Amino acid sequence: MQTIRIKAPSSDTGREPGDRPSRHEDALPLLAGMALAVGAVGAVLALTDIDSPLRGPFTLFFLLAAPGGAIAATLRGLEPWGRIVASISGAVAVNLLVAQAMLALHMWSVRGGVAAIAVIGSLIHLLVLVRRLRRRTPTRRTS
């Protein structure tokens, strides 16, 4: 007996249901978790004013990753490289706007800047989550 094979849709990964993911697919969640940990350590080091040689690089990573990750989450429809460029550019723009606003209001401080970036990144992530939840809830029509 001959079996008929149905062509997979273009959004399919090309793997069979029982296949094991590749090493690159396994490493992506691990890298995301490590990035989250490095960013959190950077924010804690900056907010608590702990002297450490890692404070500068980890805080810089947090200042770029927090708004960059939030902006990347909003741009799910873009190609991967376009999304990366747009999120990094957006992160730099958010950091510059926060710094400019704090300098104009004579309120500049490292702790305040890190806290403002954390709040802005969290708000963007929250808006993305709310938008996704609204799309998933079924709408009821009453006649």
TrEMBL record:
<feature type="transmembrane region" description="Helical">
    <location>
        <begin position="85"/>
        <end position="108"/>
    </location>
</feature>
<keyword id="KW-0472">Membrane</keyword>
<feature type="region of interest" description="Disordered">
    <location>
        <begin position="1"/>
        <end position="23"/>
    </location>
</feature>
<protein>
    <recommendedName>
        <fullName>Integral membrane protein</fullName>
    </recommendedName>
</protein>
<feature type="compositionally biased region" description="Basic and acidic residues">
    <location>
        <begin position="13"/>
        <end position="23"/>
    </location>
</feature>
<feature type="transmembrane region" description="Helical">
    <location>
        <begin position="58"/>
        <end position="78"/>
    </location>
</feature>
<keyword id="KW-0812">Transmembrane</keyword>
<feature type="transmembrane region" description="Helical">
    <location>
        <begin position="27"/>
        <end position="46"/>
    </location>
</feature>
<keyword id="KW-1133">Transmembrane helix</keyword>
<feature type="transmembrane region" description="Helical">
    <location>
        <begin position="114"/>
        <end position="133"/>
    </location>
</feature>
